[in-house]
Amino acid sequence: MSxxxxxxxxxxxxxxxxxxxxxxxxxQLRSELxxxxxxxxxxxxxxxxxxxxxxxxxxxxxxQKDVHYLAISxxxxxxxxxxxxxNISQNMGQLTSNVRAMTVSLDSIDKKVGxxxxxxxxMTSLTQSAQGMNINMHRxxxxxxxxxxxxxxxxPW
Length: 157
Hints:
By secondary structure, this protein is mostly helical. It has one helix and no strands.
């Protein structure tokens, strides 16, 4: 009896083993399909990443080279700028002395204009006298002009 009982147990075990083998085969097929899908995604992505990384390094290298040329250019321009600043500094000294001389000249002109104020008062008096003379000449012309016109008609010249 125990042999008969073992046979169904053995057949159950062999059924379990065959089911387990089928399940493992199905799992392996699913795993292989999933792996192929991942290979289709990962390898091109990895290639694109490497390509972009190389391009990034190329850009960084060119940027470094451009910055190097820029630094050289700025250095040479700074040397020129420094010499020009020294010239400007010397010219500022000359400009300061010229402005001081102009200040002295303006002070002298101010004093001379101050002496012109009494002359301005005299000029006002002179102007009034000239206006009076003008008025008097007008009166004389009016008073003497009429008789002279009549006498001019008698004169041959």
